[in-house]
Each structure stands twice: as C-alpha cells, then as structure tokens.
Amino acid sequence: MKQKKNFRLAILAIIGLTILTIVHYALAEQSGIERVELQRHDLGTPGKEVVQVRIDFDSGTAFGKHWHPGEEIIYVLEGSLEYQVAGKSTVTLKSGDVLFIPAGTIHAARNPGKGIAKELATYIVEKGKPLVNVKYK
Q: What region holds the Cupin type-2 domain (predicted)?
C-alpha cells in the first residue's frame, strides 16, 4: 500500500516537472529570446563565480529593464543589439563589439535588426544570487 502511494507521488512529480518544462520553453519561444548557459565556475575570490551565457534575440525582440548582482561583459556574436544602460546614452553594437555593464546597473537590450542577433554574456557575480533581477533596488 505504501509503495503504491510513493509510486503515485513519483508519477505526479514527473508529470508536474514535465508540464513546468513545457511551459518554460513555450514562454521562452514566445518571447523570442533564448538563453543557453555555456559554463559556470567558482572564482578564486570567495563567494564569486563566473557564468557565460549565449543569448539569442529574434528580430525586434527586447529584454526589458533588469540588473545583475555583479559585472556583465557583453560580446556581440551576430547581428546588432541596442543597449540602454542607466545614466548613459543608448548605444547600438554590431558583431564584434563589446560592452561592460557595472554590477547592479539597470539596463535593457533590444534587437533592432531584421535578422537574429546573438551575444555572449559573461557575468562575474555573487554566488547563490539570482543571475537576472527584474525588481528594482
């Protein structure tokens, strides 16, 4: 009897995780932005880690205002991306361009082009904190 109950709970958990995964990917596709984590490593500085993410933007899509608990270094791989960084003029970067965003700085990104745009984002952040924060400080 107890084994049947545990088995049912396990099946329900698998179904629930499957539904959450499907919803997550559906929302990601709907937004037109795909984030792929490439690597994550602890740094020699206690409490810090480096995370590299490839971010693909469909034509005309935007990632609204947000901030990170550490520095972000952006390298545009393909296309062009427009960045709004708090306290600075809007800048449009093309393939091969770079941008440094200081820790905690509110910023947004948008693909103004007709094709896909891709960036490599390298984050040097506080370990254990959310990588992206959309709530303002």
A: 55-120
